[in-house]
Design a protein that fits this description.
CATH topology of the largest domain: Jelly Rolls
Number of helices: 2
Helix content: under 10%
Length: 470
């Protein structure tokens, strides 16, 4: 299941004596091939044998996702929802589709021993009905033991901080929530309790960066001590997306190399995430800030020194994010102009083979005519693909919802918000599945045409119509 490239180059590096270059080696690994099923969006946990051959220190980590030929797939085709590199089943590094590079500050590193057990937790999202093979790649800067640089290294640990907790820490940021500024902050404005981490010993925080989903604006890292609270760092999302904060065309700011924050035993650290809720609703959102902790280290007292400084991005716009979508017609009809018909048979709209059984905008003839339901009644859907471990949603989008698919289109921005949740089955708390395959539309919908899409496979579009009671 694993492949190590550049073995000859690695051997050469290990024989070299790059003291003048601070003894740093750059090692390249390709984890895979990872076979992705049609429409896959599941979490996998597997052993990972791709790691350095000698003891030493890791000082930098750069992730990516590639095909067999080395090309990087477009994000609207194959999506790295997340990858988490685990050491002895504890998070070491993590990556989302923003692909932030993680660097330890000068003189610091993550201790590595060949006896460490590594695992890969990954969630690769195939937005198409076509199977794929990909590799999760990562480059690490490595300082072997026995070098002058290794002898002077200070150890840091990764503290995993997120807003929710658990293996799949997600929340919803609904459109229109958050007050006049149309921004909602989780957990502060959701009535949820903070998910705090209590510092076990005196030391220093020496780096952090945020992870968000589309719609996210920033994550905040805060510290609470003796009834006082202060913000330590705001990791901001810098969007390159022309439509604004609505896609994965983004990079996150990280702390500068000289950022040092003194923490004490008993301090409580927590994270919040702020989302823009003007244009759309954001389902299954995240706000995570893996943080570097130097046990016994020293830094600035955050209650006497302003440590909440501006961060910096680790990369600009990535070419795999060029497929913005929504800019051209696709030949799909405007469902507002189509005649509707009642649902036959079981009375449910079946979702099967990546097609909505009735009202799918890619269908022709009777199958393409929107389902008709009387006002005051709900329209039922059933995911027949759930038997193949394929998830689907029915999520409201703005009519006619028929333009080109991309990372910024379609959005959950229908005239009325509704969402089925991720229809399918999987371990609770370790998957997006809601562990049911059926859903019924709200019964209070007014007369009109409603368009929807699948958040898991956005090329899937559909429509139904609500008619007067008589």
């Amino acid at each position: 299941m694993t492949r190590l490239l550049l073995a000859a180059a690695l051997f050469t590096l290990l024989l070299a004596a790059p003291a003048a270059a601070q003894d740093v080696q750059t090692l390249h690994y390709e984890y895979g091939p990872v076979e992705i099923k049609p429409g896959q969006n599941t979490i996998e946990l597997e052993e990972n044998a791709l790691k350095p051959a000698v003891n030493g220190w890791i000082t930098r980590f750069t992730p990516n996702l590639v095909r067999k030929d080395g090309s990087v797939p477009r994000v609207d085709v194959i999506h790295l929802h997340h990858g988490v590199w685990l050491k002895d089943l504890q998070p070491l590094f993590a990556a989302g589709e923003e692909k932030t590079t993680i660097s330890a500050p000068p003189g610091h590193g993550w201790r590595y021993l060949t006896s460490d057990k590594w695992h890969m937790n990954h969630m690769i999202h195939n937005l198409t009905p076509t199977p794929e093979e990909v590799y999760i790649t990562y480059d690490i800067d490595f300082v072997p033991d026995g070098t002058p640089a290794a002898a002077a290294m200070t150890e840091i640990q990764t503290v995993w901080l997120d807003t929710v907790g658990g293996a799949y820490p997600v929340f919803d940021a609904k459109r229109g929530t958050g007050g006049k500024d149309h921004r909602t902050t989780y957990p502060d404005e959701a009535g949820a309790l903070p998910n705090g981490w209590t510092v076990p010993e005196d030391g220093a925080l020496v780096g952090t960066a945020g992870h968000l989903h589309p719609g996210g604006l920033w994550t905040d890292l805060t510290l609470q001590r003796d009834g006082r609270t202060t913000r330590l760092f705001r990791s901001k999302a810098k969007y390159y997306e022309p439509a604004g904060a609505v896609s994965w065309d983004v990079s996150m700011t990280v702390t500068p190399p000289d950022w040092r924050v003194q923490v004490r035993r008993g301090d409580v650290l927590s994270v919040s995430g702020t989302y823009d809720t003007r244009k759309a609703s954001w389902y299954e959102s995240m706000a995570i800030m893996p943080t570097m902790f130097d046990p016994g280290g020293t830094g600035n007292d955050p209650f006497t020194v302003d440590v909440d400084v501006e961060g910096q991005v680790t990369h600009g716009h990535l070419p795999e994010n060029d497929g913005h979508g929504g800019s051209r017609l696709t030949g799909l009809p405007d469902p507002r102009e189509l005649l509707a018909r009642p649902v036959g048979g079981s009375g449910k709209v079946a979702i099967q083979g990546f097609v909505y059984g009735q009202g799918d905008l890619s269908s022709v003839g009777r199958a393409g005519r929107p389902a008709r339901v009387r006002r005051g009644r709900g329209l039922a859907f059933v995911n027949r693909d759930a038997k193949r471990e394929i998830f689907h949603t029915i999520t409201a989008c703005k009519a006619p919802c028929n333009r080109s698919t991309g990372i910024a289109y379609p959005l959950a921005n229908g005239k009325v918000d509704f969402d089925s949740g991720t229809l399918g089955f999987g371990p609770k708390g370790f998957t997006a599945a809601v562990n049911r395959d059926t859903w019924t539309t709200p019964k209070a919908l007014k007369v009109g045409t409603y368009t929807y899409f699948c958040r898991v496979h956005p090329f899937m579009r559909g429509a139904f119509k609500v008619k007067p009671k008589r």
